[in-house]
Amino acid sequence: MGLIFEIENLKKSFGDNLVLKDINFNVESGEVVSIIGSSGSGKSTLLRCINLLEEPGGGKIKFHGEDILEKDSSINKYRTKVGMVFQSFNLFNNMSVLENCVIGQIKVLKRNREEAVTIAEEFLKKVGMYPFKDAKPKSLSGGQKQRVAIARSLSMSPEVLLFDEPTSALDPEMVSEVLKVMNDLANDGLTMIVVTHEMGFARDVSNRVLFMDKGVIAEDSEAKEFFKNPKTERAKEFLSKVL
Ligand code: ADP
Ligand code: MG
Question: What pLDDT does residue 1 have?
Fold first, then answer.
């Protein structure tokens, strides 16, 4: 256990559109935190700021106590510790499934090929995609692609995985295979921050829910408590639409 993230007074604007207003929350090691809220409320921007895909306009992102927005912080090391899984998979289509999971380990982590292959195969087994290791992404279903993308992220030995609507691009019959993998990872104790429309996942798998509304965290609650007893009108309204 212990604190992994302390997000303090985080802000982000696009032009004069203030998209993240004053974001504050902590994440403990082993926690699964779901971020939910209406479209446009700033969920993706928040994840992208945490992952430094967007540059925050102010505030702090402390990772193990060190503010990664400070000039002298070790950003490259940080990036390897925080993995991201996207709605649209972002696999390399010209490479095999296995190679997708190997390449980053060699290029970024400087592992040798043999070790990288061993690690990649371990995680492909974990997500049930080992039998497809020589296939090209093009020949896979959306659910299979997303499971490969998860294996690829895990192969980089992240401390935290961020997910941005990992099941939103999938046909309905493929959602459950991806949620099952995520449920397994939660049970293994992996720290995860998950932007999701899957209210079942948010309620039953995550420990905590952050409800975002117009650029602020309107509620930060224990997951079951949030669904049983939302405190704000906005959350009640949101839940009445999605449940
Ligand atoms: P969510 O993921 O909750 O749907 P986003 O974080 O994608 O919300 O978007 C929040 C707001 O920021 C929206 O008003 C969106 O139009 C705006 N926004 C997001 N990304 C950009 C960008 N790259 N440039 C300009 N505006 C953006
Ligand atoms: Mg989004």
Answer: 63
CA dihedral 196, 202, 207, 211 (to 10 degrees): 60
Nearest ligand by distance to the CA of 38: 1
Nearest to 60 by CA among 13, 5, 7, 11: 7
Please tell me the residue having the least CA distance from ligand 1 atom 13: 40
φ, ψ dihedrals at 138, nearest 5°: -55, -35
Q: Is the CB of 16 under 6 A from ligand 1?
A: no
Q: Residue 53 phi/psi, 5° resolution?
A: -75, -25
Q: Are strands 160-164 and 82-85 parallel, antiparallel or unpaired?
A: parallel
| 229: CB partners within 8 A, 6+ apart | none
Query: Which token pair is 96?
Result: 């095999």
Distance 49 CA to ligand 1 centre (A): 12
Low-confidence ranges of the chain (pLDDT < 50): none
| Distances 5 to 11, 16, 185 between C-alpha atoms, Å | 16, 28, 19
* Sequence-separated (6 or more) residues with CB below 8 Å from residue 126: 151, 154, 181, 184
Helix (H) or strand (E) holding 51: none
pLDDT at 243: 86
